[in-house]
UniProtKB/TrEMBL annotation, chain A:
<feature type="transmembrane region" description="Helical">
    <location>
        <begin position="243"/>
        <end position="262"/>
    </location>
</feature>
<dbReference type="InterPro" id="IPR037294">
    <property type="entry name" value="ABC_BtuC-like"/>
</dbReference>
<protein>
    <submittedName>
        <fullName>Iron chelate uptake ABC transporter family permease subunit</fullName>
    </submittedName>
</protein>
<feature type="transmembrane region" description="Helical">
    <location>
        <begin position="269"/>
        <end position="289"/>
    </location>
</feature>
<feature type="transmembrane region" description="Helical">
    <location>
        <begin position="183"/>
        <end position="202"/>
    </location>
</feature>
<keyword id="KW-0813">Transport</keyword>
<feature type="transmembrane region" description="Helical">
    <location>
        <begin position="47"/>
        <end position="64"/>
    </location>
</feature>
<feature type="transmembrane region" description="Helical">
    <location>
        <begin position="295"/>
        <end position="316"/>
    </location>
</feature>
<feature type="transmembrane region" description="Helical">
    <location>
        <begin position="135"/>
        <end position="153"/>
    </location>
</feature>
<feature type="transmembrane region" description="Helical">
    <location>
        <begin position="76"/>
        <end position="97"/>
    </location>
</feature>
<keyword id="KW-0472">Membrane</keyword>
<feature type="transmembrane region" description="Helical">
    <location>
        <begin position="214"/>
        <end position="237"/>
    </location>
</feature>
<dbReference type="InterPro" id="IPR000522">
    <property type="entry name" value="ABC_transptr_permease_BtuC"/>
</dbReference>
<keyword id="KW-1003">Cell membrane</keyword>
<feature type="transmembrane region" description="Helical">
    <location>
        <begin position="109"/>
        <end position="128"/>
    </location>
</feature>
<dbReference type="Pfam" id="PF01032">
    <property type="entry name" value="FecCD"/>
</dbReference>
<keyword id="KW-1133">Transmembrane helix</keyword>
């Protein structure tokens, strides 16, 4: 009885949700020494940013893996996170820093996301149109594209502001402790928008993971739906990068945790599970490192290290098979 | 079959032509490099002015050392890349994309932590070269342990090893509050090169020369262990010499300027397209092209946001990624 219950994905996701809620409670209540109003505001906004980032990364990674039929490729690994950083620099280069300072945040981020969706769709069409068949080639192309985007945005930053380059260069590394809370509202709106778009295609997702031919056979307008989902992925990658900066292996880690925990391919379970796994890693990890261990080690480094090891393990398993 | 296009004499004539063209290119770029900088110089004044003049001071204390350093380092890194490609039996690898450079940067970090008071130059050079050798051995060792069914696994494994070493260094640097220094070592440039601060690169020049003399032996190495042993080459000894040469070239460049990426990937592959696979004939051209690439990158970096500078590593990474991507996409059918 207990065993059959345990096999149900619903039960597993429920347990994951309970664990996530415990992490949230821990984040808000452990080591509170000042008055609650301050804590609510300070930790609350950080918590919200982490929740949004975990949702954006979890959803975008699982969706991307569905449309690319791979458990190894992620948006971050294919250079999409860094592409958004590059878009950020490009917008600054084109419109000028002083000019942009007068704009409202929502307009600036909205423009960046629009550009990002366009460029991401272009890159996606280029890489996944069927001409690249080897998984190893795809990973190499993605890693090099990411490196190219990073170096280009670094060059852009130097051209923009040669003297203050050192100050701005710190912004382009992922950090889960210094999240960008100014852009919370914009990010929340964009994420909701992406979620609503996703609702339109939710029935197609499980069919898409069966492969292109079967999906077309079952009456899915494959090309259009895949591009639509890729646009949603691009929006979510933008949200995550705005909030915590570019990550590399975090998405891979939580998506594969979600598959492993739910033990199913159904998106109704894997999508929420990846978000919950993301929340547990980010919020729980933050509580563990900051409050319980009192360590100064940045959570981003620890998570990326764990994700990197997982990547190597998955890759080696593929090579040996 | 007497197709004149493949006759040896014709090939060597074409090779000689390319060699002369590359030599001219390096000379032109070197003269440009002597002329470009924060203060204006007229090179002709040097001939007439007395040695204590401002012009000759700038020239001999800063411009000439920098230009020489660029030529020596570029040539050495290109040749080191070619040798590493023979040892790994794969054309898509470089010292910067497989571990040696990242390991050398880790060596710089470990030195800064363990011996903050500093060591004499030769000791730093030897220790950093030791780390670079460790990086090469790690890469070659991992390659031996996995089945290499596709040519792409080798550069992929290399990038991952470099990434792991890089991430590990980042973690250590963060703990010791040296992230800023690590970033400086990882983005190499020649702006700090003055007289007295680049002479280590003459060691690299000697190593480059040694590598040129041994070039045909490394061609044999590139054909695999069995073949090499079969025709009477001491495989183990040559591999050890190769590791030492590459490691000391990487060590001398990283100690002098920091990590300089992708030259060892781009130069050998371009020369291979121009003249084919014979390393003995190609290696002088590889060296010249490496020097030209580094001179051009440094020159562009000095001109782009004059009077500020963009590190040459930044520009080299961009160019190197583009070339690498082009090579991969061009040959995508053969790898699928």
């Amino acid at each position: 009885m207990v065993l059959t219950l345990w096999r149900q994905p619903a039960v597993r996701v429920l347990l994951l949700a309970i664990a996530a809620v415990l992490c949230l409670l821990g984040f808000m209540t452990i080591n509170v020494q000042t008055d609650w109003a301050f804590i609510l505001q300070h930790r609350g906004s950080r918590l919200l940013a982490l929740l949004l980032a975990a949702s954006a990364i979890g959803l975008s990674t699982v969706l991307f893996q569905t449309i690319t039929h791979s458990r190894l490729l992620t948006p971050a690994l294919m250079g999409f996170d860094v592409l958004f950083v590059l878009v950020n620099t490009l917008v600054l280069l084109i419109f000028g820093g002083a000019e942009l300072a007068g704009w409202p945040n929502s307009l600036r981020v909205g423009l960046q996301m629009l550009l990002m969706v366009g460029l991401a769709l272009l890159l996606f069409r280029l890489l996944f149109s069927g001409s690249v068949r080897s998984l190893h080639l795809m990973i190499l192309l993605g890693m090099l594209a990411g490196m190219l985007f990073r170096e280009l945005s670094e060059l852009g930053a130097r051209v923009l502001d040669p003297s203050e380059f050192g100050i701005s260069s710190g912004v382009r590394q992922a950090s889960f402790s210094r999240v960008n809370t100014e852009l919370l509202a914009v990010s929340a709106v964009a994420l909701t928008l992406g979620g609503l778009l996703l609702l339109r295609w939710r029935r197609y997702l499980d069919v898409l993971s069966l492969g292109r031919d079967i999906a077309v056979n079952l009456g899915v307008a494959h090309g259009r739906v895949v591009l639509g989902i890729m646009a949603v992925v691009a929006i979510m990658v933008s949200v995550a990068t705005v909030l915590v900066g570019p990550t590399l292996f975090f998405g891979l880690l939580i998506a594969n945790l979600a598959y492993w925990i739910t033990g199913t391919q159904r998106h109704r379970w894997t999508l929420p599970a990846s978000v919950l796994a993301g929340i547990i890693c980010l919020v729980g990890g933050q509580v563990l490192l900051e409050q319980l261990l009192a360590s100064t080690l940045p959570l981003a480094l620890v998570i990326e290290l764990a994700g990197g090891l997982l990547f190597i393990a998955l890759l080696l398993r593929g090579v040996r098979q | 079959m007497t197709d004149s296009r493949f006759s040896p004499s014709r090939a060597s004539r074409a090779g000689a032509l390319w060699l002369l063209l590359l030599l001219a290119l390096v000379l032109v770029l070197a003269v440009c490099s002597l002329n470009v900088g924060a203060s204006r110089l007229n090179l002709l004044n040097v001939l007439t002015a007395d040695p204590d003049d401002r012009v000759s001071k700038i020239l001999f204390a800063s411009r000439l050392p920098r230009t020489l350093a660029l030529i020596l380092a570029g040539a050495a890194l290109a040749v080191a890349g070619a040798i590493l490609q023979m040892m790994a039996r794969n054309r898509l690898v470089d010292t910067s994309t497989t571990g040696p450079m990242a390991a050398a940067a880790l060596g710089m970090l470990v030195l800064a932590i363990a011996l903050p008071d500093g060591l004499p130059l030769w000791a730093r050079f030897l220790l950093v070269s030791g780390f670079a050798a460790g990086g090469i051995l790690l890469f070659l060792g991992v390659l031996q342990r996995i089945p290499l069914r596709s040519a792409l696994i080798v550069p992929l494994v290399g990038l991952i090893i470099a990434g792991v070493v890089h991430a590990g260094s980042g973690l250590i640097a963060h703990h010791f509050d040296l992230s800023q220094s690590l970033r400086a070592w990882n983005s190499g440039d020649f702006s700090a090169v003055l007289r007295g601060r680049y002479e280590l690169l003459w060691v690299a020049a000697g190593l480059t020369l040694a590598a040129m003399l041994l070039a045909d032996r490394f061609t044999v190495i590139g054909m695999g262990r069995d073949f090499a042993v079969n025709i009477g080459v001491n495989y183990g000894l040559l591999m050890a010499i190769g590791v030492a040469l590459v490691a000391m070239i990487v060590g001398s460049v990283v100690v002098t300027a920091g990590v300089i990426p992708f030259i060892g990937l781009v130069a050998p592959n371009v020369v291979r397209v121009l003249t084919g696979d014979n390393l003995r004939r190609a290696v002088p051209m590889i060296a010249l092209l490496g020097a030209a690439i580094l001179l051009a990158a440094d020159l562009l970096g000095r001109l782009l946001i004059h009077p500020y500078e963009v590190p040459s590593s930044n520009l080299l990474s961009i160019a190197g990624c583009v070339v690498f991507l082009a090579v991969l996409l061009h040959g995508r059918k053969q790898w699928s």
